[in-house]
């Protein structure tokens, strides 16, 4: 047999979701259907970092998909301590970390505290970033690790009740929106009516300011013929998750993604069971990564992604399975999905 030399990736990156570390005994999710391993999650993070440190091709960066520490830390006045513990592990890794914010970030810290914190990766990267308008207090930015590739980090709680001051207009508007869909007194309790389930307090959405900024980032990437991977704590494709984990206005974000030929992949956390769907409109891969917190101590949940000109190869560890994510060949026939016209 002929020896084929192995193709080198253009670059690689690591990805991990829902670590939710707390120095607490094991617990469970709200419905008691899944065990949560609060202490062991730190060991699973160490396993991921060891793998990335020892990789033949070192990751250019690592994406932490949100919920880095659990909300229970707040009840024990342990938020800062738990964050220190997890971030000191990350600092032993081979590359800078891009942190995404999930609901548990807001159980532990206010939005203004997060904006000043080590979880605001725009303050701690040496790369040049293009951030959402500064006065909007939105944590969203894009960066290009290698010419031709852009990553966009989105803020899924820009609209929402978590992390916003109750006196703020954003809080009032979000409360009015969620109340139109969820009549329960406890807004963490969903209405069990299909897609309406997403209107809970532990989810949120994207404001017009963020959507407009996102659209402009993708327009520029289209012009430059780049390939864009979008990252958010909350999934936005209904087939990549269960309705209870979707962003409130997932449909608006999905319309924007579908209207740009540059988009190749969307990565999310939040749904600890994980999920995957390739969108028929535009061929974007929607990957929801399995959460560390619900992974037994003898397992793993992280991935290393190798990026090539025509694809990304995701090597999954533990309960994350391997996938080859081919880039769509020709998206020139994509017509603006917001006009309602479909891709042929
Ligand atoms: N069905 C439900 N009814 C009421 N409260 C809920 C329900 N599901 C979750 N919660 C509450 O919402 C919050 C977030 O839920 P949790 O399961 O911790 O989210 P995550 O999956 O992001 O860890 C918790 O305070 C939890 O108790």
TrEMBL record:
Pfam families for this protein: Metallophos
Name used for this protein in its record: Manganese-dependent ADP-ribose/CDP-alcohol diphosphatase
Domain spans labelled Calcineurin-like phosphoesterase: 12-273
Complex and partners: Monomer.
Family of the protein in this entry: Belongs to the ADPRibase-Mn family.
Keywords associated with the record: Hydrolase, Metal-binding, Zinc
Enzyme class at the top of the EC tree: hydrolase
Reactions the enzyme catalyzes: CDP-choline + H2O = phosphocholine + CMP + 2 H(+); CDP-glycerol + H2O = sn-glycerol 3-phosphate + CMP + 2 H(+); ADP-D-ribose + H2O = D-ribose 5-phosphate + AMP + 2 H(+)
């Amino acid at each position: 047999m002929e020896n084929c030399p192995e193709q080198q990736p253009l670059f690689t990156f690591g990805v991990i979701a829902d670590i939710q570390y707390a120095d607490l005994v094991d617990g469970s999710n709200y419905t008691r259907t899944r065990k949560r391993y609060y202490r062991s999650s730190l060991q699973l993070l160490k396993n991921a970092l060891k793998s990335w440190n020892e990789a033949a091709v070192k990751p250019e960066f690592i994406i932490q998909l949100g919920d880095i520490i659990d909300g229970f830390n707040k009840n024990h006045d342990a938020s800062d301590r738990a964050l220190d513990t997890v971030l000191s592990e990350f600092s032993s890794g081979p590359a800078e970390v891009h942190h995404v914010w999930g609901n548990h970030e807001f159980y532990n810290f206010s939005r203004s505290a997060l904006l000043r914190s080590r979880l605001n990766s725009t303050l701690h990267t040496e790369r040049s970033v293009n951030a959402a308008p500064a006065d909007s207090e939105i944590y969203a930015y894009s960066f290009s690790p290698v010419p031709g590739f852009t990553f966009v980090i989105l803020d899924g709680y820009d609209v929402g009740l978590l992390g916003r001051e109750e006196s703020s207009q954003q809080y009032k508007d979000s409360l009015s929106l969620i109340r139109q869909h969820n009549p329960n007194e406890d807004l963490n309790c969903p209405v069990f009516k299909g897609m309406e389930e997403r209107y809970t307090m532990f989810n949120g959405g994207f404001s017009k300011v963020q959507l407009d900024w996102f659209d402009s980032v993708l327009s520029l990437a289209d012009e430059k013929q780049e390939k864009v991977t979008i990252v958010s704590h909350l999934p936005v494709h209904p087939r990549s998750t269960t309705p209870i984990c979707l962003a409130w206005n997932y449909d608006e974000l999905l319309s924007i993604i579908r209207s740009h030929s540059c988009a190749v992949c969307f990565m999310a956390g939040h749904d600890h069971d994980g999920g995957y769907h390739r969108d028929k409109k535009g061929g974007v891969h929607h990957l929801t990564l399995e959460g560390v917190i619900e992974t037994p101590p003898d397992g793993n949940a992280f991935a290393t992604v190798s990026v090539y000109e025509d694809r990304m190869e995701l090597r999954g560890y533990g309960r994350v399975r391997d996938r080859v994510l081919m880039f769509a060949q020709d998206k020139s026939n994509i017509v603006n999905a917001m006009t309602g016209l479909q891709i042929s």
